[in-house]
Amino acid sequence: MPPEVVAVVLAAGRSSRTAPHHKLLATYDGVPQIVRIIRRLAASRLAGITTVVGHDADRLRPLIEALPTRVLVNPDHDGGLAGSVKMGFAAGMPADGVMMVPADMPLLETAHIDALIAAFVPGSLVVATDQGAMRNPVILPASMAAAVDTLSGDTGARRLVRDCESVRLVELGAAASCDIDTTEAILSTGGHLPKD
């Protein structure tokens, strides 16, 4: 039986660099990015999805509640990324691995997700790369629970990757490093600014 991998969609951030627009409400082919990324994950071999929202949760939740994802609200989203990572990881147990997926990655396709899952073996950490450089998403093994619990502030999985002895790299190209942290990035990737 293949190992069970679940995903955590990290969607709690403030989108401060795209203000006054929320980047996850930017649309691609008429679909908000937050909906698009969850649909792509849902079409993959993942065993389950949890989405962690925070800032503007009241606007994001109605868009995704009908999708195949559990929705959690991080009450301390202003405290940084680590809180969402820890909350999502705990929600993913007792899976063998938990994939951390920033919600703002418009080039990420279902095939990329399946390639990461295929590379995962229990106890290993899987990292997507772009021309060899480690990027996102990553799959954290269940055995890293204690290490995940030590994260704080605006820290994602990068330190955990550095400290892990067994790291498997999966080349995804630009899909692994493209995010929409700015309005320019939204427009250059074919997105449209939300009408809000």
TrEMBL record:
Recorded superkingdom: Bacteria
UniProtKB keywords: Magnesium, Nucleotidyltransferase, Transferase
GO MF entry, a single one: nucleotidyltransferase activity
Domain MobA-like NTP transferase: 7-164
One Pfam family, short name: NTP_transf_3
InterPro entries reported in the protein's UniProt record: MobA-like_NTP_Trfase (IPR025877), Nucleotide-diphossugar_trans (IPR029044)
Listed CDD domains: GT_2_like_f (cd04182)
Residue runs in coiled coils: none
SUPFAM superfamilies: Nucleotide-diphospho-sugar transferases
Name under which the protein is recorded: Molybdenum cofactor cytidylyltransferase
Naturally occurring in which organism (per UniProt): Aureimonas altamirensis DSM 21988
